[in-house]
Amino acid sequence: MSLCMAVQALTPSAVDWERRQRLVSEHLQLLSSKLKSNHSIHISTFGSSLSGLCLADSDIDVGLFGRFNGCLLESLTPKQQQSLLRLVLNAVYAAKLARNQQVQPIWGARVPVLKYTCQLSGLQCDISLQGAGALVKANFIHILSINCKQLSALYRLVKLWAQAHDLNDASRSTLNSTSLLYMTIFHLQQLQLLPPLKVLVPPELLLQPGARLLQGSNRQLWENPQQLGLLLGAVQANMRAWAHQRQQQQQQLQEPGISELLHGFFQFWTGALS
Asked: Model pTM?
């Protein structure tokens, strides 16, 4: 099998993606309708489920965002986290979202999570408490991937390689998928196929222009859906402008193929780590 065929096999078809998105949307609507909470909480997918870099049968990563008892979810005590997740657990049962009504709460994890098989789709679903940074990151990755076709293709191959060599399991002290993704992005930046991410963010949208996007008071900005929308709109426009400018400047240059990118990835990281 060629690398291009492998990428095609790893990438959900338009039909598979539409079906997945429809079932996930229905799942979230049912969960939201049964979550009896007066707190400022909303539910959304995040991670690869939002960025679009998942497989057709990848887990559904569902996050709770907002505030509970006036506190950011990421700053809750373990007891408060459990109280909120028990409300969600009751909502899952009430909506009959879990196959055979079987839900596995993992209270002792670094990030407590509810795990179950979705009755609608048959996919594994993980529900956890998240900060607004998770939405920012996933949307950033989505914008990068739709403007740089090499990102999705290379990342899928790198992840396939890591899984084949038992190197994609953080619980066993190997690399998690996010680490592999960031390694892929950094490699593509060295080839000028992706820009430095900071050039995509207009400083005027930040409360602290000198600080990072998810540090200090900047981080709190993205709790506001309107502010988050402004940020993502600007990032999308800047990414398109950067890609267009690059295309104009390099019209005569041939784009590297996927085999060249994959070989270069291993060369780059072997050299950097040696």
From this structure: 0.90
